[in-house]
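User: Could you check the structure of this?
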Amino acid sequence: MGVVNMANPFHVNDFFSNSPALSLTLAGIFRQGTVAEKVDLCNGEEQAVEIISSENSAPARTRSDEDPDDNVDGGDQTKNKNKRRKKYHRHTADQIREMETLYKESPHPDDNQRQQLSKQLGLSPQQVKFWFQNRRTQIKSIQERNENSILKTEMEKIRKENNSLREAIKKVCCPNCGFAKEKEKKEDHLIRIENAQLTAEIQKLQAVIQNDISGMNDRSRVVKLVSQATEELITMATLGEPLWMRSVETGREILNYDEYKMRFPPPSTKTRHIEVSRETGVVFADITMLLKCFLDVNHWKEMFPCIISKADTIDVVELGHHRNNGVVQLMFAELQMLTPIVPTREVRFVRHCKQLSAEKWVIVDVSIDNTIEDNNINDIASVVKFIKRPSGCIIEDKSNGCCKVTWVEHLEYCQNMSVPTMYRQIINDGTAFGAKRWLSTLQQQCERLIYFMATNVPSKDSNEIATLTGRKSILRLAHRMSQKFCREIGASNLHKWTKLPNTKEGDEIRVSYRKNLNDPEEPIGVILCAVSSVWLNVSHIVLADFLTDASRRHEWDMMSNGNPAQSLANLAKGQDRGNSVTIQKLIRSEKGKEKRILQDRSSNACESLVVYAALDVATLQSAMQQGGEESGAGVAMLPCGFCIHPDGMESRPMVITRSKVEAGGCFLTLAFQVLASSCPTDELSIESAVESVTDLVSCTLTNIKTIFNYSQPHGSSPPNLLFL
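Assistant: Sure, the predicted structure tokens are below.
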């Protein structure tokens, strides 16, 4: 198992490689606590390291068995000892290689295996036994150092956060006496509570990591697991009928689970909730970029900001060879929908990358819990709620700047998740967490990168963005804005949502607040976020077009005071005409002060995201002048916006008729963020800010419903529930 480099998790030491230099261990029996070590270089090609014990291959001798000359004092005794040292056994490179090969297959060989290996290598069974004992001890010490490194890093983060909070408290003192106010004493108490919670979370993570690593100590077990998972994924991705059947009603592929169980018997007969989906499409990206996206956890999170709320690489089991062929990683991810009312999904899995041919690769994810007995799964169900059966994608390079991707997503879970009734349809048909959403998001993000690097993309009404550097800076700033928005409105345990009483229209609003002390990308102070999710009888594309139309912004935006906005720039970031970044001018009539609205829209078959933030002219011009990867990194803003999901009704007609069937509705999640107070320790103004932001959410929803002639009785449900 490799040791993770915290700066770059891919530069690690591979302790399971075939390098003789890393495979040299004690050659004989430890005796009298004396160990000598010697390093030789053979012809400058291969480095052989010998760790010599005080025993050779012969049986150990007692004091009475020693030569009489051993009792001679002085130089004679020294000469005799030197003679014995020269007889010590030294393992050859071939012996080490053979023992290393057996160790990979079985770290604990039985007596028959040791006897056979000793005859083959010309060693005694006792020497073979001690070599394996020393090898296991070496691997165990490496694992312990790795765990200690992870814990030290987490503790250092807590210590730094604690110090920053204390420094912020010290700055807010009474001007007369110089002591902290009573409010700061209360804040100090809250800091202790937060630190205790963080410490408890670290202990929980430590227990999970220990559980994962303990399951991976038997390396042959992990290798067998990923090998079987790879074969299953290839079968699931390439076979058609009878394994996959085409639904006449929806047009989607549906897994024939009886056929699946015949091919791949499940580890348990216990009934579980199952979600399986498959999707195929073309992605405009080369194979190298896609492999980096999946194997670098930071790139993976950036590629799927709407789906992944948290992710990390816990350990690297195998480094792989050329172009990461053979990489095995232990990973963690928290998956989300962009609404606080749908619970997130925590999964821990092993990710394996393998090259199938010159143009074809496979990325397979499988939970290591697949090898745990069924009664043990329930023991960790409180931590790992979802089990990833072999999932992932097959990537085929088409040699013209694009790849064909076949995605399979297969999840099982034992618990009854508390999913809201109105979202069950899109969760069951795979729109929420299935292969279609993963592939659609990947296609959309790859298009964004292509348009970002292009130099000949026409810009509409872009008088204020005259340079290519300015265009890239605005696109990068908009992407940062959307990423921040996705992090703040989900149901991740990073946020604590409070449900408020229903409004007169029956809308449920949830609020959360956080304190920003030193993040330059947000205003310093107490930040309040209010979110509401509703069903509307309008297509998600139609609703997204309406919300991004500058000429109709005043119809729903309460901050425009009834004044229409003017579009100043429109930067395309995809083939879809709606996927673009726009700059709008907003004039507030009461003061005559101009504001700029930076707006980012991303639409695909599974969701539409509209995110915006108000910026002053000077800030926007400064951001356009920046260049490089850090452009826009220091711009403080509070993104607001909308996330829209189709409700799945457009492919499910209730009756057969020649008349035109109305398109399905959508689920709209609206989120506003405001600065409740510029002082991080101020809590008095939160209550009044909650009232203001909830009024803003309620009025905006009322305006949108009025425009689309929407009227739903209080407490009623969207019509798609008829099909559940």
